[in-house]
Design goal:
4-stranded mixed beta sheet, 3 helices, about 130 residues
C-alpha cells in the first residue's frame, strides 16, 4: 500500500468499516408532515428526535430496528430517482399490499435472479427498494 496524500504512516493503517449507521435522503423544506405520514404511519417507522443543533435545519429521523433513515430538508430539492436505499423486509408481499393500499405504485423487478424485490417512491419522489429476506 502506498502512502496517501501527504504521506505518513497513518494512511497505511488498516481501518475496519463495520456497517452503515444510517441512510440520508433529501426532502423539500416543509415536508416533515408528509415524511411522518409516509415513513411513520405507512411504513411504521418510529420517529427519533433530532439533536437540538440539527433540529433547526428541518427534516426528520426515523428508525425501525437496526434501520435508521434520516430525511434532510433541502431548499433546492431534487428527488433521488436512481440512487436508493435497499431495505430487507420479512414480509415483502404484505408491505407491497400496504403501500398499494396507501396509494403508492409498487414496481416489481426480476432483474436480479433469485431475489424478490420491488421499488416504490416516497411522497417526495425518492426511490426505495424493498427486498425479501
Amino acid at each position: 500500500m502506498t502512502a496517501g496524500p501527504g504521506g505518513g504512516e497513518w494512511y497505511n493503517r488498516r481501518v475496519k468499516l463495520l456497517r452503515i449507521d444510517h441512510v440520508q435522503l433529501a426532502m423539500p423544506v416543509g415536508g416533515e408532515g408528509a415524511a411522518r405520514a409516509w415513513y411513520g404511519e405507512l411504513l411504521g417507522m418510529r420517529e427519533e428526535p433530532k439533536p437540538a443543533a440539527l433540529a433547526a435545519r428541518g427534516g426528520c429521523w426515523f428508525r425501525a430496528g437496526d434501520l435508521a433513515l434520516h430525511l434532510g430538508a433541502e431548499a433546492d430539492f431534487r428527488p433521488a430517482r436512481k440512487a436508493h436505499p435497499g431495505v430487507l423486509v420479512d414480509d415483502l408481499d404484505a408491505l407491497a399490499r400496504r403501500l398499494q393500499e396507501g396509494g403508492c405504485e409498487v414496481r416489481w423487478s426480476d432483474e436480479v435472479p433469485g431475489v424478490r424485490r420491488f421499488h416504490t417512491d416516497d411522497p417526495f419522489g425518492n426511490r426505495l427498494e424493498f427486498i425479501a429476506l
